[in-house]
Structures are given as structure tokens and as C-alpha cells.
Amino acid sequence: MSERIEWLDDGTRDGSPYNPRFSDRYRSESGGLAQATEVFLNGCGLPVAWASRPQWTILETGFGLGLNFLVTWAAWQADPQRPRLLHFVSTEAFPTSADDVLRAARSQPELLPLAEQLQHQLWGLLPGFHRLVFAGGQVLLTLCIGDAKAMLREQSFEADSVYLDGFSPQCNPDIWDIHTLRAVARCCRRGTGVASWTVARSVRDALAQCGFMVHKVPGVPPKRDNLQGVFNPAWTPKKTRSSLASIRRPAARCVVIGAGLAGAAVAASLARRGWQVTVLDGAAAPAAGASGLPAGLLSPHVSPDDSLLSRLSRSGVRATLQQADKLLQAGSDWSRSGVLELGVEHPRKQPAAWLQDKDLAEAARDWTRPATPEQLAACGQSPDAEALWHVQAGWIKPARLVQAWLGMRGIQWRGHATVSQLIRQDDAWQLLDASGQELACADLVVLAAGFASRALASSGDSADLPAVPLALQAIRGQLSWGMHGPDALESLPAFPVNGHGSLLPALPLSGTAGGLAWLLGSSFERDNALAEIRPEDNQHNLHRLQTLLPAVADTLRDEFDSGDVQAWAGVRCATPSRLPAVGPLNKPPMPGLWLCSGMGSRGLTFTALCAELLAARLHGEPLPVEQRLADALLPQRGVVASAPDN
Ligand SMILES: Cc1cc2nc3c(=O)[nH]c(=O)nc-3n(C[C@H](O)[C@H](O)[C@H](O)COP(=O)(O)OP(=O)(O)OC[C@H]3O[C@@H](n4cnc5c(N)ncnc54)[C@H](O)[C@@H]3O)c2cc1C
């Protein structure tokens, strides 16, 4: 979905970027660097204003070629007094290509290393929010692709600084009109700084109407004047959303119950924000529950209406890929192998718009495209079979991710610590074991114990902890696996296949065993919370493989018949909507009690994203996904009760 750019000859090697749609240049004649630094960064009093603050949030209208972001990131990086976390939220209706972003930065060699990292993450920019992660998770760029007004309606945070950028008010009046500026004002607190390169009368008037006090300052040549100001309305700003995100909570101590993917991801997201996190688990080692799965598939969901689940799954896959890229060993812990999805029972259809609109099609192809005849042939399918190739997909060993997250600074893991009861005492939560001994005490407790979260939320049938009803369901599952003999790999596709059960053809095993294993997943038994192995489930898995990949089933049948096949079973935890459940428990009010669970069959897709969402809500930060999507995950959505937010 890349905006076409013309590179005008300005005497430099790369030229000056020009946008034919708006008949305007992307940067002033003096070059973008001076404008980004002096008009926007310094115009908002940065970096001085953010010194020693835990977080700083910048809102920008018009991402363009990303120069303001790169300059701000570079200033943050160079500042010994930088905030722990820098949020940069930028709206863009017409995103440029990653290559153009890099080309635009070439004239500023000092920014080039940052621009290369940005370029690497600029893919698949379909309409909606995209959270890009830099500097080990301390610089978070939320790119909101679409009309600025619509995008800002989907956010609820308070910006500390606002960069008003974009093509000139004459060329692109929409981004400067009263409606857009009102949407910007909705994201401001009293005292939010604002800066722009335009001093157009219409813009100044609209800003004043929205509660900004602005004044002209000497401009960066060739502009005589620039604009600076502050949000300081004469009225008390009305917060239209009874936002859960209204508290700027300082990082403190927190206890997470459960050391699976969900608990470890939450611990990592909070530790990144300065929390001291204790993770308690009843088992002797982390990832003892469903996250002990030998390996699982990571792949986006596709639907003709691009459903909430589909959109959420893309955000989740992106979040997990970022973590895997940074923390895991490619090839042994995980692989971005791609995944082929065969439409066995219900052929998966991509949204029609993706196929019709050239720009959408380009962005969508970064995610998912029709399988090629070669890929289909490798699965024994005819060239016209209905199948999708998920590009941003692969397999991961969940336990490796759990270990990497728990190993982060600020996290303490404790095993053999089964929590039986939560008691509210002196504004804190006391966590007790079965004998009534205190295991831990904290202001903030996050339940991430899979299906056991349901019982924990109702563990205090007293006034201290009224029962909190949670619609969580246990779903037992078993996968079958075995080691490859010599030459066995040749008869299997070279990539994972999903659609009616799944096949992971070659998983490298670590440790003394070594070698390559095949994995066949997985049975699905509702309302069974026992992770027991059953021989009949192996037969069930083979039976489904016969439908998915008959030739592979024939190859593996002997191993099933001879009883050489091994199995692993676990218990998934799902919600009725099949979406995860993340957020505060507040019906009835439970101050400081949060949930992150209900990952269903997509823990690898959802946990990294849900952990960031939980942290964003807790701190009043920009959301990593649209508000509509985030709200759909609230654990007690639909439960009627008038309760204050946590
Ligand atoms: C057969 C099977 C195949 C799957 N395949 C895939 C796949 O391909 N891709 C994918 O993304 N997902 C897959 N999943 C789903 C994925 O495994 C889960 O979504 C994910 O592991 C859930 O993580 P969790 O942290 O929420 O729960 P869990 O990993 O179950 O963690 C819960 C933790 O809480 C602890 N705990 C429970 N009660 C207490 C207590 N009272 N006190 C202290 N600790 C407690 C447990 O010991 C456990 O460690 C599969 C699941 C199964 C069963």
C-alpha cells in the first residue's frame, strides 16, 4: 500500500521526495533534518521536557517518510536523562514504501542505522494500527494507517507532545481542519506541548477553538515563522471515553500467577516498564502447562470480512515475531518458515477488497498470498487447490520464549508455589497456599494461570474477595510426534501445513536426543481439564492427517501402527468468543486484580500482544491495537455492573 513518490533533482545524490497526489514536497528546501529538530523536537521543548520522566508520549499527524520519528529516537538515544519508555504515535493515510523511507534518510548518515531498523519493520501496513518495537522495547512506534480523525478516535491516551505535520493546509486541508485538530485535542492533557511548521491563520484559529494557546516563533529558513503552543483550554476538557487508561500508574511491585506464555509475557512487559515482578507457579519448572507444548504454529487468521479475530491475529503475529527475532535462536528455537493453510473443510477466503484494491493487495501480500503450484505440489495437491501461504508465520518452541521472558531483569520466578487463595488486606493482595501460608503480597496481581484463573478469581468466597465469574473453558488437546528415520524427510513438505489439524514436518530437538522430529496436532476436547495422554487421540490425529495430507499419512502410518508414536497433552483455556481475555477485573470491583488468559489455540499469536495491551491499559499508554479490538478483549465485557475502573 505504498504511496508513489517522485525524487526531484535538488543536487543531492538521492534527490528531494515529492508527492504527486498532494503536489507538495515532503521536506522543506533546507532539508528535513533542521525542520524535524528545530520545529518539532525543540519546538516541543525536547529533550529537556522529558528528562528523568518514566515515559514520554508523542503524537504526530502525518508520518510521511518518518524523519521526525527518527530524529526523536536519535535524540532519545543520545540523552542520558531519557525516559525509560518513548511512545511515538503517528497517523498516516498514505504510507510510503520502506525503501523510500530508507532513501529519504540517506542524506542524514547519522540517522541511517535507525532508518535501517525502521525499514526492516515497515511491511504489511494494512489499514489500522501497527506497533513497531525498537531499542529492546523502550521505543514504541504505533503507526495508525488511515484517516487521522478515524484513527485517533480509536486511541485513548494523553500525549505529552504533539507534532502537527503533513502536507501544507492548501494541498491537504483535511489534516489541518477543526475535526482533525479536535481529535488531536482529545489526546492531550493540560500542558501538552504542540509544534508545527505552518502558521496558517486557519490552523491557528482551529487550534485556538480546540483549546490550544499558540504563538509564532522565528522559523527555520525558508519559513519566516513557525508555531509553538500548549494545550490549555479555558474549559475543563471532557474525556469522552470513560477510559480505563486514565491512570499514569508508577511502576511498583507486582505478582503474576502462572509461568506459561501469558504470565511470562506480562512479566516481561511490566519489567520493561520498571516493575519488580514475581512470577509464581505451582510447577517445578516454567512452562509446565499448555506452554510446555514441544512446538506450536504461529500464523495469522484470515477471513472474508477481515474479522476482529483476523485483525487481532495479525497484530499478535507481528508482536510475537518481534520478540522471537530478538530473544530466540533462529533454526533451533523457532523458524519464520512460512505456513501453508489448506482449505479442507472451509476454504479460507481473503477479504475481497484485498484482491481488488492494488494498494491493499500489495500490503496484504506481505502477510498472506495464494499458495504457488510448487507449494501445492509439495503437499500432493493439484495446482488449483484452495490454499493460502502465510508469509509471516512459522513455528516456535513456547518454553524457549517463556524462559527468555522470565530471564529479563526485574523478574523473579518461583516454582512449587501453588496459589490457593487471594485475600484483600490493607489495599494489597495477599496470596496464600493451600495451608494458608502467605506466598506473596502485592498491590497488583495478574492472573495468568490458564484455566485455573477461573477458580482463582473466585477463590475468596467472602467479603474480601467476592466470587468473580469468568467465562473460561478448559479444552484438552493432544499432539502426536515421532523422530525421523533416514531419508524420511523427502516425502514430507518442507514447511508446516495447517487446515485440518496441522503438520510440523521437521522440528530440531535439542539436548542429548538431538535429531529431527515431526509433530502432528492436535485433538480438541471441550470441558476436560486433565492433561492425560490417550492412545485413541493419536489415531484421531492420524485420521485427520489422512484428509489434510493423505500421502504424508501413508508415510507415517507404520509408526502409528507399531506404537512408536509419542504424544504430548495439555489443557488450553478459551473464552466463548475465542478471543483472549485481558484487562482489569472490576465487576465487582477488585482494585489491582487483572487477568491475562483465554489464549485458546493461539497462545503464540496472542500472548506478547496481550501483555503489551495490559501494560498499556495499566499505565494509560497508547494502545497497540484499535480501541474497538482492545475493548473486545475485556475479561468481563457484557457483565452488567456499575463499578469504577481499577
Ligand atoms: C495440544 C495443544 C496444541 C496447541 N498448539 C498450539 C499452536 O500450534 N499454536 C499456538 O499458538 N498455540 C497452541 N496451543 C495453545 C497454547 O499452548 C496456549 O494458548 C498457551 O500455552 C497458553 O498459555 P498460558 O500461559 O495462558 O497457559 P499455561 O501455559 O497453561 O500456563 C498456566 C500456568 O499457570 C500455572 N498455574 C495454574 N494454576 C496455578 C496456581 N493456582 N498457582 C500457581 N500457578 C498455577 C500452571 O502451572 C501453568 O504453568 C496448543 C495447546 C495444546 C494443548
Structure notes:
This protein is of the alpha/beta class and 646 residues long. Among the domains are: 6-231, Rossmann fold (3-Layer(aba) Sandwich); 253-289 and 400-472 and 576-632, FAD/NAD(P)-binding domain, CATH 3.50.50. Helix content is 28%, strand content 26%. Strands 16, 17, 18, 25, 26, 27, 28, 29 and 30 form a 9-stranded mixed sheet that branches. Strands 6-7-5-4-8-9-11-10 form an 8-stranded mixed sheet, with helices on both faces. Strand 10 and strand 11 (225-231) form a beta hairpin. Helix 1 (32-41) crosses helix 2 (67-78). The longest helix is centred in the middle third of the chain and has 20 residues, at 308-327. Residues 257-263, 280-283, 288-291, 293, 296-297, 398, 418-419, 448-450, 452, 456, 477-479, 521-522, 570, 572-573, 597, 599-605 line the site of flavin-adenine dinucleotide.
Main features:
646 residues; alpha/beta; 9-stranded mixed β-sheet; 18 helices; binds flavin-adenine dinucleotide
